Amino acid sequence: MTYDVTRTTPPGAPVGEGTAFIIDQNISHLSALAARLFGKALGARLADYGVSAGQWPLLLHLWEEDGLTQKELSRRIQIEEPTTARTLDRMERDGLVRRERSQRDRREINVRLTERGRELRDDLIPCAQEINARATHGLSSDDKARAVSLLRYMIARLA
What is the pLDDT of residue 75? Predict the structure, then answer.
């Protein structure tokens, strides 16, 4: 799909200083579009299990380290704390997590997976792997590794 704003360079030519803004060659636009499409595809698969795409990153981090604080989850996922709190409200309502006061600091809230939240890991990880495989079908292992490396680089530069 091409969204020519004002094409002054031929298709495929690098966009540099002094050239027009060409949407289909803009990394921020393409990465945002890819993220939305990944989210939509993953959300459709997760919905079968009663989980939303917005809950997915919290589950990933809790599977890696159960008992994180709400604040730490927000920091790791790079979303505002009120958004994290609302997402956790839904997850708690749906029986995926429970909140408990920290024994160390009563002002902190630790988030713990329920048995259901833990058990979903084995069902949901293959869903994400399926979406990744669909998106990268036809790419070599080297191309996939390079894509991951480039995305990590860009994330680090913007963080």
Answer: 95
